[in-house]
């Protein structure tokens, strides 16, 4: 009898045969398809629908507040409500990342659902500026921030080969929400009043977010060691930091048309309120395609190259806004600007993944970059509101401000690409 046979022994006496020790296995590869994976895309799409979708609806609220509820406040003061919403949405991702990594995915979307719905319900009861700022700006903004990062992170664990497409579909949820919610508010507010129109939006958010809660599930167990919030190596990466500077510049100017297109239509062009509200819907509707198609181009030509071109074209189109003097021209502007600017919103995560030295720090680097985007989003619209004089129909200063910062962002992206190429050449030598 050889050694192997002695080791296995005879099983006639009830002694179990020796079995090989189980080998540790890594996580299974992403499915890149299947019902479960595509359900995550649907759930993430609805998270975007109720995070960016509600944030981008503020242009409709801005016009209403200026004409009705907050007549004694300036455009700049009112815009702080919406920009603080957007700031919290983006900035809170910096905090939500480690929470997600520790396995609290459902806790994040449950908290986000509660805060978004609570914020909208409290907004419906508000009558003063500070009440609107707390309810709509702070509570709703924090809720949207809880929803935003999980929507990006969960899809990335299910797809690799179709990631650009799935991320584009996910991000398109924000644009679709930005089309539907302003129309809901505009149609219902004259009939049932501001309070109930806002509550209806809250109820729609609750219903759609419940779908996400029911169908979404994490695929991977939480890592034993959660990622850091700040990676010192990122701060030493010149291409990455220059790109972040570009994000700051771009987001300073990016959302000014979304906040002021309605007011521009009514005050500068004399378009009736029934029609002017649809300018925001046109902007956001075009952005649906602008978040999907550039992602497909980025897979072929490079994300950094596509976002650079998109930022430059957004700046050029924003400058063209100065020449708009009729309804047809404004509609054309909204279509082109909404489409091109969508790429600037959806592509940064994939660009940042190309700067990071490894997948283990991508989440950290994206979270750090979101801080720069958030700061630009926070200050851009209030500054533009100070420059724009709605009472005297003077919008040109704010338009130039928006376009100039978008152009500055494009220049920074070009420099980031040059520094990245130089670093790659140096690494090969």
Strand percentage, roughly?
Answer: under 5%
Question: How would you characterize the largest beta sheet?
Answer: none
Which sequence of SSEs, written as H and E, runs from N to C?
HHHHHHHHHHHHHHHHHHH
- What's the CATH class of the largest domain, please? Mainly Alpha
Rounded Rg? 24 Å
* CATH architecture annotation of the largest domain: Up-down Bundle
CATH fold category name of the largest domain: Growth Hormone, Chain: A
Task: Please name the fourth-level CATH homologous superfamily of the largest domain.
Answer: MFS general substrate transporter like domains
The stretches of 5 or more residues where confidence is low (pLDDT under 50) are 1-18
Number of domains: 2
**Distance between the ends:** 60 Å
* Average pLDDT for all residues: 85
- Count up the helices: 19
Shape by Cα distribution: globular
**Percent of residues in helical segments?**
over 70%
Number of strands: 0
Question: Which structural class fits the helix and strand makeup?
Answer: mainly alpha
Descriptive overview:
- The chain has helices at residues 3-8, 35-49, 52-55, 58-69, 75-91, 93-101, 105-125, 129-156, 163-215, 232-235, 238-254, 256-267, 273-276, 278-301, 303-320, 327-346, 348-355, 362-387, 396-428.
- With 429 residues, it is mainly α.
- It folds into two domains: 32-224, MFS general substrate transporter like domains (Growth Hormone, Chain: A), CATH 1.20.1250; 227-429, Growth Hormone, Chain: A.
- Helix 8 (129-156) crosses helix 9 (163-215).
- Mean pLDDT is 85; it is low at 1-18.
């Amino acid at each position: 009898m050889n050694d192997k046979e002695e080791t296995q022994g005879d099983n006639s006496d009830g002694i179990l045969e020796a079995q090989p020790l189980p080998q540790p296995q890594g996580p299974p590869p992403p499915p890149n398809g299947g019902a479960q994976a595509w359900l995550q895309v649907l759930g993430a799409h609805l998270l975007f629908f109720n995070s960016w979708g509600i944030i981008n609806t503020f242009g409709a609220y801005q016009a209403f507040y200026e004409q009705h509820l907050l007549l004694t406040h300036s455009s700049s003061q009112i815009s702080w409500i919406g920009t603080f919403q957007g700031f919290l949405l983006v900035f809170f991702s910096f905090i939500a990342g480690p929470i997600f990594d520790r396995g609290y995915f459902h806790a994040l979307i449950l908290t986000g659902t509660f805060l978004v719905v609570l914020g909208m319900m409290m907004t419906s009861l508000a009558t003063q500026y500070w009440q609107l700022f707390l309810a709509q700006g702070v509570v709703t903004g924090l809720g949207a921030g809880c929803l935003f990062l999980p929507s990006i992170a969960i899809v990335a664990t299910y797809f690799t080969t179709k990631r650009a497409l799935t991320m584009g579909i996910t991000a398109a949820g924000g644009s679709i929400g930005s089309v539907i919610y302003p129309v809901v508010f505009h149609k219902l507010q004259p009939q049932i009043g501001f309070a109930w129109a806002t509550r209806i939006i809250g109820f729609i958010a609750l219903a759609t977010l419940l779908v996400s809660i029911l169908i979404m599930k994490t695929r991977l167990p939480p890592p034993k060691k959660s990622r850091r919030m700040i990676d010192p190596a990122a701060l030493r990466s010149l291409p990455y930091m220059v790109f972040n500077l570009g994000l700051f510049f771009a987001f300073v100017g990016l959302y000014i048309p979304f906040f002021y297109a309605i007011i521009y239509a009514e005050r500068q062009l004399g378009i009736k309120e029934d029609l002017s509200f649809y300018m925001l819907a046109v902007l956001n509707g075009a952005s649906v395609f602008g978040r999907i198609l550039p992602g497909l181009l980025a897979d072929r030509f490079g994300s950094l190259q596509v976002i650079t071109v998109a930022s430059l074209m957004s700046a050029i189109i924003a400058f063209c806004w100065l020449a708009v003097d009729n309804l047809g021209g404004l509609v054309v502007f909204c279509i082109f600007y909404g489409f091109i600017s969508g790429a600037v919103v959806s592509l940064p995560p994939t660009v940042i993944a190309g700067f990071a030295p490894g997948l283990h720090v991508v989440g950290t680097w994206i979270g750090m970059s979101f801080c720069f985007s958030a700061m630009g989003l926070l200050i851009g619209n209030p500054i533009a509101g100070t420059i724009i004089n709605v009472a005297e129909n003077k919008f040109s200063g704010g338009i130039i401000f928006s376009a100039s910062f978008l152009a500055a962002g494009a220049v920074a992206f070009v420099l980031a690409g040059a520094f990245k190429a130089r670093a790659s050449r140096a690494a090969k030598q």
